TrEMBL record:
It comes from the Eukaryota. PROSITE patterns: INTEGRASE. InterPro entries: DUF5641, Integrase_cat-core, RNaseH-like_sf, RNaseH_sf. GO terms for molecular function: nucleic acid binding. One of its GO terms (biological process) is DNA integration. Residues 10-202 form the Integrase catalytic domain. This is Integrase catalytic domain-containing protein.
Length: 317
């Protein structure tokens, strides 16, 4: 396995080295009217290469002016960016023409956006074609999220305020991701997440009933917003944990799992931003002499789980 790119492992402040991606278009309306003018919007996604934190900004189009405004809003909240990485414009299969134009403008030193980046001493770099190790952050979480939010929103026309609420809640979901144990203490069941770096503590969400099984016509408008958020959370969490388990297969097979390892326990229909964490206190082998079951100590108690229900933290492995 090759070395990670320097940008992924060099200590720095949050968002000093940032990846930028785009999601959309989505269509929102100004008022609670069944028929009315629709406005096309996009979500600009900022991804910290070091902490894996994310930040969303809604933009009205993919022009230089709109992205420059989004960049200013972002830096007003998260601080100065030193380096921006984006997927190569040619790598966006079927990408929107506006997106391709934006990338061309960045490369033009006479463009107002390129001039702004230069004046702020922000370096913009394109990920080289066929360099999957550079774009690992996109592949692991963000692109999966993009798929689910596009599917969840579908043809539902939200107001701008409703869409902003969905966007902010999903940002919280991605920043709740446990990355590495907070300590090596076997009694400590907490993990460091991007939220710890950004706000100093885990991000909690208002506990609400699960409404994903209800048809849209049986829900009020704000319940539909909750349904979209819950839909994205349940499916993104499931897919992300499956992704971690694919990476972890070699880990269990080579018997590198240790007593005291902090793992994520897969459960169905868990509340928003909640990850059940536990320490392995005992392992059980199958007839093939491979680890098949673990005894896990969690905040809910101690119980057995097959390894198919466990995922090792993404940085811990």
């Amino acid at each position: 396995m090759g070395d990670l790119p320097e940008e992924h492992c060099t200590p720095s402040l949050p968002f000093n080295i940032t990846g930028v991606d785009f999601c959309g278009p989505f269509y929102v309306k100004n008022k609670f009217q069944r028929k009315g003018p629709l406005q096309k919007i996009y979500v600009s996604i900022f991804i910290c290469f070091v902490t894996r934190a994310v930040h969303f900004e809604i933009i009205s189009d993919l022009t230089s002016d709109s992205f420059r405004a989004a960049l200013k809003r972002f830096m007003a909240q998260r601080g100065k960016i030193l380096t921006i990485f984006t997927d190569n414009g040619r790598n966006f299969v079927g990408a929107h023409n506006e997106l391709k134009c934006l990338f061309k403008l960045v490369s033009n030193p006479d463009n107002i956006l390129a001039h702004y980046l230069g004046s702020e001493k922000i370096h913009w770099n394109f990920i080289p074609p066929k360099s999957a190790h550079f774009g690992g952050l996109w592949e692991a979480g963000v692109k999966t999220f993009k798929f689910h939010i596009l599917h969840a929103v579908g043809n539902l026309k939200l107001t701008y305020e409703e869409f902003l609420t969905v966007s902010n809640q999903i940002e919280g979901i991605l920043n709740s991701l446990p990355l590495i144990p907070l300590s090596s203490d076997a009694k400590d069941l907490q993990a460091l997440s991007p939220a710890h770096v950004l706000v100093g503590r885990p991000i909690s969400a208002v506990v609400e009933p699960n409404v994903t099984e209800f048809p849209d016509n049986a829900l009020k408008r704000w319940q539909r917003v909750t349904k979209i958020t819950q839909y994205v959370w349940f499916r993104w969490q499931r897919d992300y944990l499956n992704h971690l388990q694919q990476k972890n297969k070699w880990y269990f097979q080579k018997d590198n799992i240790n007593i005291g390892t902090l793992v994520i326990v897969k459960e169905d229909n868990v509340p928003l931003n909640f990850w059940l964490l536990g320490r392995i206190v005992k392992v059980f082998y199958g007839k093939d002499k491979m680890i098949r079951v673990c005894l896990i100590k969690t905040a809910k108690g101690t119980f057995k789980r097959p390894i198919t229900k466990l995922a090792i933290l993404p940085i811990d492995n």
